[in-house]
């Protein structure tokens, strides 16, 4: 076991001390990670290449996939490496970067999901004003605000969290530098600032949740008034996947961060951390592509022999130049 009594890092306990289970965990996480990378890269590529998908909804979906791709890359590769090496040690610098990017990307994900719900609300409830409200300039500003807000949230959390003195052993019962677990080794009288920051972040996330709930209550009210069953089905096919993603991500993250901390580690902590760190970035591409006819048609087009032949010829011409 790595000596973590010095101030150079932390010990991530992970899932098991058994070597065979560590290898199994590494292989499972590697498969999941490759699936997440492939799915999200595919969505980004499809939306970029297909002109029919150059609309606000797919523009936001592309940024959601980019966020998912980065989000899962913050925690899973480090966990795979630790399991393969049989060591849970993570340096202080790595832990700082992991906390910053984790909070920044998680905050950005909540924000982009809120923007996506507003986009669907305007498209369905105010269709005549949609092009005016969701013009390209407004979409770019919204996405820029999402990334900036996430970055500021990550910066504040990281600065406050790593200014807290530690009174316990530097052992984190997680597979990544998780703030609730890190606070368990902090001096009890010193982390009032982190609690204040966490309360502000939670309040902001709650406002986003209320906005999403309001948007979808208006959407479903409008959908139920559509006389055509085909029209209702088309709207539900674009809205239900987004609603499922929002519910799954926020409920898992909310349960983990809002429940009272326990002194003893449990398998429940690891399970719920997987629910909001690993599963959403992996399932989001599947959910959006399977329920969206435009995405499926674009995927078939990109993977068709004619399209692949065109891309190959284009790449060959570039290399010749």
Automatic annotation (TrEMBL):
<feature type="transmembrane region" description="Helical">
    <location>
        <begin position="270"/>
        <end position="290"/>
    </location>
</feature>
<protein>
    <recommendedName>
        <fullName>Olfactory receptor</fullName>
    </recommendedName>
</protein>
<dbReference type="InterPro" id="IPR000725">
    <property type="entry name" value="Olfact_rcpt"/>
</dbReference>
<keyword id="KW-0675">Receptor</keyword>
<dbReference type="GO" id="GO:0004984">
    <property type="term" value="F:olfactory receptor activity"/>
</dbReference>
<feature type="transmembrane region" description="Helical">
    <location>
        <begin position="235"/>
        <end position="258"/>
    </location>
</feature>
<keyword id="KW-0812">Transmembrane</keyword>
<dbReference type="Pfam" id="PF13853">
    <property type="entry name" value="7tm_4"/>
</dbReference>
<keyword id="KW-0807">Transducer</keyword>
<feature type="transmembrane region" description="Helical">
    <location>
        <begin position="59"/>
        <end position="76"/>
    </location>
</feature>
<keyword id="KW-1003">Cell membrane</keyword>
<keyword id="KW-0552">Olfaction</keyword>
<keyword id="KW-0297">G-protein coupled receptor</keyword>
<dbReference type="GO" id="GO:0004930">
    <property type="term" value="F:G protein-coupled receptor activity"/>
</dbReference>
<dbReference type="InterPro" id="IPR050516">
    <property type="entry name" value="Olfactory_GPCR"/>
</dbReference>
<dbReference type="InterPro" id="IPR017452">
    <property type="entry name" value="GPCR_Rhodpsn_7TM"/>
</dbReference>
<keyword id="KW-0716">Sensory transduction</keyword>
<feature type="transmembrane region" description="Helical">
    <location>
        <begin position="191"/>
        <end position="214"/>
    </location>
</feature>
<feature type="domain" description="G-protein coupled receptors family 1 profile">
    <location>
        <begin position="39"/>
        <end position="288"/>
    </location>
</feature>
<comment type="function">
    <text>Odorant receptor.</text>
</comment>
<dbReference type="GO" id="GO:0005886">
    <property type="term" value="C:plasma membrane"/>
</dbReference>
<keyword id="KW-0472">Membrane</keyword>
<keyword id="KW-1133">Transmembrane helix</keyword>
<feature type="transmembrane region" description="Helical">
    <location>
        <begin position="26"/>
        <end position="47"/>
    </location>
</feature>
<feature type="transmembrane region" description="Helical">
    <location>
        <begin position="137"/>
        <end position="156"/>
    </location>
</feature>
<feature type="transmembrane region" description="Helical">
    <location>
        <begin position="96"/>
        <end position="116"/>
    </location>
</feature>
<dbReference type="InterPro" id="IPR000276">
    <property type="entry name" value="GPCR_Rhodpsn"/>
</dbReference>
<comment type="similarity">
    <text>Belongs to the G-protein coupled receptor 1 family.</text>
</comment>
């Amino acid at each position: 076991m790595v000596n973590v009594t010095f101030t150079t890092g932390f010990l991530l306990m992970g899932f098991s001390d058994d070597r065979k289970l560590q290898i199994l965990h590494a292989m499972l996480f590697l498969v999941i990670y490759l699936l997440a990378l492939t799915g999200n890269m595919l969505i980004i590529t499809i939306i970029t290449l297909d002109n029919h998908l150059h609309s606000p909804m797919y523009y936001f979906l592309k940024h959601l996939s980019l966020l998912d791709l980065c989000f899962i890359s913050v925690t899973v590769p480090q966990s795979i490496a630790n399991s393969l090496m049989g060591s849970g040690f993570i340096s202080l610098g790595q832990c700082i970067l992991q906390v910053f990017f984790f909070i920044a990307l998680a905050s950005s994900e909540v924000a982009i999901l809120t923007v996506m719900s507003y986009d669907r609300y305007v498209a369905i409830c105010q269709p005549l004003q949609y092009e005016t409200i969701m013009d390209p300039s407004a979409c770019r500003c919204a996405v820029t605000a999402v990334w900036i807000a996430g970055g500021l949230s990550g910066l504040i959390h990281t600065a406050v969290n790593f200014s807290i003195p530690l009174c316990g052993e530097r052992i984190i019962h997680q597979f990544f530098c998780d703030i609730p677990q890190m606070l368990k080794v902090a001096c009890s009288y010193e982390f009032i600032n982190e609690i204040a920051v966490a309360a502000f972040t939670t309040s902001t996330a709650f406002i986003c949740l209320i906005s999403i709930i309001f948007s979808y209550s208006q959407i479903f009210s409008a959908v139920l008034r559509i006389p055509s069953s085909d029209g209702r089905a088309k709207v539900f096919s674009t809205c239900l996947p987004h609603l499922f993603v929002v519910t799954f991500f926020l409920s898992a993250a909310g349960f983990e961060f809002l429940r009272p901390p326990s002194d003893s580690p449990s398998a429940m902590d690891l399970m719920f951390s997987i629910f909001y760190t690993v599963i959403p970035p992996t399932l989001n591409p599947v959910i959006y592509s399977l329920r969206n006819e435009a995405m499926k048609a674009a995927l078939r087009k990109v993977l068709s022999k004619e399209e692949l032949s065109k891309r190959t010829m284009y790449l060959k011409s570039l290399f010749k130049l």
